[in-house]
TrEMBL record:
Catalytic activity line of the entry: UDP-N-acetyl-alpha-D-muramate + L-alanine + ATP = UDP-N-acetyl-alpha-D-muramoyl-L-alanine + ADP + phosphate + H(+)
GO molecular function terms noted in the UniProt entry: UDP-N-acetylmuramate-L-alanine ligase activity
Keyword Metal-binding applies: no
Alphabetized NCBIfam families for the sequence: murC
Keywords: ATP-binding, Cell cycle, Cell division, Cell shape, Cell wall biogenesis/degradation, Cytoplasm, Ligase, Nucleotide-binding, Peptidoglycan synthesis
Name used for this protein in its record: UDP-N-acetylmuramate--L-alanine ligase
Subcellular location: Cytoplasm
Length: 466
């Protein structure tokens, strides 16, 4: 992977920008916002996508595959993510030509341009929480600019240019880039140590969150329930810290959570209380909603209006997203790629599956995370799912590590009758269909390309009807 040098200067004026990895949800959103500014956009990605076709329809020059020929002669800036390889030909050619090569976070910083920024950070829940805040602000009559890590279902996009001075972003802690932004309101959903390949130690990871929070000019909104967040909060020197969660000492407290079907709950603040319900399931989403409400309170909205606006949130793409029902089996997809996220996703599914069973189709993400956490993945999958199908590791930016495969996860199950490791996707789809029964939920889990197996699963389920 390429580690970003966030100290490098960002061009003051950009008239033409090239995006390496333009098809990703975050990068395509950024590219779209550059188009909104009247900036010429080009880019490439390794495979075609709806996002790339949408950008092309707006005038962007997009290419499938990476090649030096894709790089325009008059480009002012080349935007990249840490997911690309250092040998990427477009990246190397831009360097050779002396073109400004900036990380996606620097491009986002350039776009913010001094507006009042709400930055959402945390190991889990960032995309959902950002979506809730954006949805609520729009429902309440505001018109924020936003960049999210996933498509907000009710809006149909992951980013948008608004007319207000508010700018809402999902801020990435994985490479430390969340420290680049001039944040007004910082929301920290949780602090669960991850990405230690960048940070080096748990202590450094926590210190990064302390620096991020203390730099916020207006307020810090932080979980009262998450142990890591509580540890960070205890180290803050910020004068305006607002906690949220189920803890008795939370400033914005959630009670009376009912998880059967769409989750319902009550939010308390300053002696007032308001009850609400969401279209998305799971106790964790009630807590995410409380965090979004807390942000709206710091922006000057009242409790009742804030909660009613958050209720408008209808989910985000790749977060417990239903893709189809075949032979009575519902097939969902979820981005969960950390044990805590897998636990939340499967727990939410359990509240709505009724008498049906849950079959997890898990794709481990990165060799380093699999090697470090395979036991935790196995424990969560075995305790939350009725049966698990494990695929091989999606390496992303990493080179393979000898001995690190999906079989590490499956081999750590105590009951081997409840897990099946298979590397061939067609065989995995057929096996999943053979296990599934009417009323069951099949859920693909992972932030790689596991969602691409869903058509094969649906076809295999359909063949069972013939």
């Amino acid at each position: 992977m390429i580690r970003p040098d966030l100290s490098l200067p960002i061009p003051l004026d950009i008239t033409a920008a090239h995006f390496i990895g333009i098809g990703g949800s975050g990068m395509s959103g950024l590219a779209g916002m550059f188009l909104d500014r009247g900036i010429r956009v080009s880019g490439s990605d390794r495979s075609d996508s709806d996002a790339m076709r949408a950008l092309a329809s707006r005038g962007a020059d997009v290419h499938v595959g990476h090649d030096v020929a894709n790089l325009p002669e008059d480009v002012d800036a080349v935007v990249f993510t840490g997911a690309i390889w250092p040998e990427n030909p477009e990246y190397l050619r831009a360097k050779e030509r002396g073109v400004a090569v900036i990380h996606r976070s620097q491009a986002l910083h350039w776009l913010v341009g001094g507006r009042r920024l709400v930055s959402v950070a945390g190991a889990h829940g960032k995309t959902t929480s950002t979506g809730m805040i954006v949805t609520a602000l729009r429902a309440i009559g505001a018109d924020p600019t936003f960049v999210n890590g996933g498509v907000i279902s009710s809006i149909g996009v992951s980013s948008g240019t608004g007319s207000d001075d508010l700018f809402v972003i999902e801020a990435d802690e994985s490479d430390g880039s969340f420290l680049l932004y001039d944040t007004a309101v910082a929301l920290i959903t949780n602090v669960d140590p991850d990405h230690l390949d960048h940070w080096g130690s748990r202590e450094a990871f926590y210190e990064g969150f302390v620096r991020f929070a203390d730099a916020a000019s207006q307020a810090v909104v932080i979980s009262s329930d998450d142990p890591g967040a509580r540890e960070v909060a205890a180290s803050l020197s910020h004068p305006n810290v607002v906690s949220f969660g189920t803890s008795a000492d939370a400033d914005v407290r959630v009670t009376d959570i009912v998880t059967e079907g769409p989750v319902s709950f009550t939010v308390h603040h300053g002696g007032q209380a308001a009850s609400g319900a969401l279209a998305v399931p799971g106790a964790h989403n009630a807590i995410n909603a409380a965090g979004a409400v807390a942000v709206l309170l710091t922006l000057g909205y009242d409790l009742g209006s804030a909660l009613r606006a958050v209720e408008e949130f209808g989910g985000t793409v790749r977060r417990f997203e239903l893709h189809g029902i075949r032979a009575g089996v519902s097939v969902y997809d979820d981005y969960a790629h950390h044990p805590t996220e897998v636990d939340a996703a499967l727990s939410a599914a359990r509240t709505v599956v009724g008498e049906g069973r849950i079959i997890a189709l898990h794709q481990p993400h990165t060799y380093s995370r699999t090697q470090a956490m395979y036991r935790e993945f196995a424990e969560v999958l075995e305790s939350r799912a009725d049966h698990t199908v494990v695929l091989d590791v999606y390496g992303a930016r990493e080179d393979p590590v000898p001995g690190v495969t999906g079989e590490l996860v499956s081999g750590a199950f105590a009951d081997q009758d409840r897990v099946h490791f298979v590397t061939d996707w067609q065989q995995a789809a057929e096996y999943t269909a053979s296990v599934a029964q009417p009323g069951d939920y099949v859920i693909t889990l992972g932030c790689g390309d596991v969602y691409r197996i869903i058509p094969q699963v649906l076809d295999a389920l359909g063949q069972g009807q013939d």
